[in-house]
Each structure stands twice: as C-alpha cells, then as structure tokens.
Predict the structure.
Amino acid sequence: MSKRYYSSLTKKYIMALMGLFLFTFLAVHLSINLLLLFDPTRVLFNEAAHFMGTNLIVQTFQWVLFAGFAIHIFYGVVLQIQNWMARPTGYKKKAFSEESVFSKFMIYTGIVIFIFLVIHLGNFFVLKMQGDVPEFNNASVSEMEDMGLLVVNLFHNTGYVIFYVVLLLTMGFHLDHAFQSAFQSLGLNHRKYMPFIKGLGRFLAIVLTVGFVSIPVIIYFR
Amino acid sequence: MDLKLKIWRQSSRDAKGKFVDYEVHDISSDASFLEMMDLLNEELVEKGEEPVAFDHDCREGICGMCSLFINGRPHGPDTAITTCQLHMRKFRDGDTIVIEPWRAKPFPVIKDLIVDRSAFDELIQAGGYISASTGGVPDANAIPVNREKAELAMDAAACIGCGACVAACKNASAMLFVSAKVSQFALLPQGKIEAKDRVQKMVAKMDELGFGNCTNTYACEAECPKEISITNIARMNREFFKAKVS
C-alpha cells in the first residue's frame, strides 16, 4: 500500500466521476421503477424492462455500469485503508467536528450499499439471467418476461420490504454527502455556486431515496 | 477551579505511552490553558517528578507551535484559536480534561504531548516556495495584482502550519495545509510560474509521507485556528488537474 500508483488526488477524481455517473444510473433506474406505481397492470414496466434487457446499446452500457460500480468500490476501499494507516494510534476522546454528518460514515454506508447491491442483484438480475422469470401474458411482443410480477411478489414479503426501506435510507445518507463531495473533489467549489450544489445534492438524495422507498411500501400496502 | 487531567505521557519516541491522571487546584478562570499546564509542571518539579513536555513558543496565537488535542478537539473547546489563546473559563470547576498529542503517522510523538511536525517542513521543501533571487525590494506597483486574488492569497497565507487540520481530520489528511500553500502562490503572479510543478511535487510528497486522503468532511476547516477555507482544497484539486492535463 505504500506504493501509490495514482496520487491521492487522482483517486479522488476517479471516485467523484464514478460517483456522479452512478447518480445518473440511479435516476434512470428510479424512473423505470416508478412505472410500476403508475401502471398496476405492469405493462409499462415490463415493456421498459424488456427494452433495457434486449437493447444492444443498453446491454453494452450495462458493462460500463458494472465497471463504474467496481472502480468506485475498489478505490473507496483503497482510500479507506490508506486513511486508516495514516492514523495508527487513535484518540482516546474525539469530539465531532465534521461539517457534514454523513461524511464520517461513507465507508460504512458504502459497505451496506454493497451488501444491498449483492442481495438486490440476487433478487432480480440473477433470476433473469437464469431465465427463472415467468412470461408476461399481457405482452405486446412475444417472450416478454414478467419482471414486474417478480417485484410485486417480493414486496409482499414484510421482511424484504423492511430490509429494502432500511437499506435505501442508508443509501440516502451516502448520497447526501456524495453529490457535493464529488464537486469539491473535482475542484468545482465556488462560493457563488456551492450553496446551490449542496442544496441540489440534498434534493437529489431526498428525491431518489423517497422515490425508491415508495416502491416497496406502496406495493406492500396496495 | 479544581480540575482533573488525563494526560498522555510517553518518555521517548519509541517508548510505550499511557494516560496519567493529575489534579490541579485553585486555577483562575482567567488563566490560559498553557499557564494551567505551567502550574501543573511547577508542582511536578517540586515533587521531583518529570514535567509534562508540550510545545509552545510565542503564546500570542501566531507562531503555530502549540498543539494539544484537548477533550477531543485540536486546540480545545473554542473556535479559531490556538491552544495558547484558550482560557480556563471555557471549562467548569470539577471538569476532567483529556489532553492528547496530535495523532498521525507522519507526526510521531517525540515526548509526551510533543510531536515531530517536520513532515510539514518536508512538504514546504517539496515546493512551497518561489525560486526568485533575492535582492532589492521591487516597486510595489510593478506587478499588478487583482485585489480579490490578493485577498484570497493572504487568507491562504494566514496558515501557521500548526497541524490542527491533520489532527482533526479522521483520515489524518494534510490537504488543508498543502492546499493553503499551493493557493497562496498559485493566486499571485510570482507564484504562477512554478505552479504546475509545485502542486505535483507537494501532492506527491504528501502521499509519500503517509498522510491520509481527503474525504471532504471539512473537519479541518472547522478546527483551523486561522479559519483556512476548504475552497483552497478545491483550488488545489483544480491546479493539480490543470498541471496533469497541460
């Protein structure tokens, strides 16, 4: 770990760029998921899922997304190990002086999100890859899978709903610090624009979290 | 006021340290924190014990020599001050005060509460200067400087290199210190000439010395006795990027 292949700042640029990229992914993911709430017949959602699952550009981009996650996680861990190594002896008493509350726990919220990601992929993506998704009868095209049914069935399980809500809230805490932090890391901190960027980051974190949380909760009580 | 103190004692760089409990009595609320430490040391010397070693020099809040991690905060429970400017009125009678040295791998403890901060000197040696021959004083108006930039450069130059930023940061990162030095030069015409080289060398040295990375918690800015802004870190990030791509 003593040999640094990239400087600390280069690693921060990579973290920031990958983080902002993952924000765009979450926005697209949420907009598709919300179709399930607006259309209980699942037609819109399944058609969107079918498009995402069969379109060549989207399928190619999927690997870019996986790479984005992998790089963000890899450098997050590398940076954290270096940070721990920078203070081998800790303090007996440490007050809280961080300006951003969630900034102190990014590695921990990050680990929770990673665990969530693995389980989430197991719930949907792996089943799809294995061809274990039932066919959608109401389909406009043949051989369309009923991904929506998979979601609805999962979110009728109380344990999964609680699990998803708790972990999505953790993701919200991660996102709250992440957005403005990415701009700071990229050097884009200007006294005129930073309050807006901080506000936008909090707004996006709230919108994404409330949006994602609403899906299991509404489906459960519907 | 009467106080209980828990102080880190370590006889030498390689010795194993530990917290030792002390009590001080009849301390005036008008006394400075370092005067309280002086009184404790006088008592220890009278008893034939080794006094507590701690850094101090000007005691006017300008030299950056004093340190001390007091009750979980660098320079103690006040904002924008150094330990020498901390007064006992910030504490209450009967309080227990935990006093620790700065903790960071590049700041090894030399004795008790004194740490070796020569890592900061190495950072300055790596690029925190301008290569200009000294000579006669140039005419003040020979090089026009934008007023706003001059102010920002002066704000950055207010850094006294005490190391509170490193001590406060959960990652023991020196970004605020390095960025203040990078900024004070990069903002001025005289410093611009070597700006690209400077930022790369200082960042490389910072990494080599084993300081942590910045995770934008901004604890450094909150605890800096000279209120150095984290916008300097953003400026350093920009300067580094510019240096790498051009």
About this structure: Helices of chain A lie at 8-33, 35-38, 43-54, 56-85, 106-130, 147-154, 158-185, 194-221. The CA atoms of residues 15 and 76 of chain A lie 7 Å apart. The domain at 8-87+100-221 of chain A is CATH 1.20.1300.10 (3 helical TM bundles of succinate and fumarate reductases).
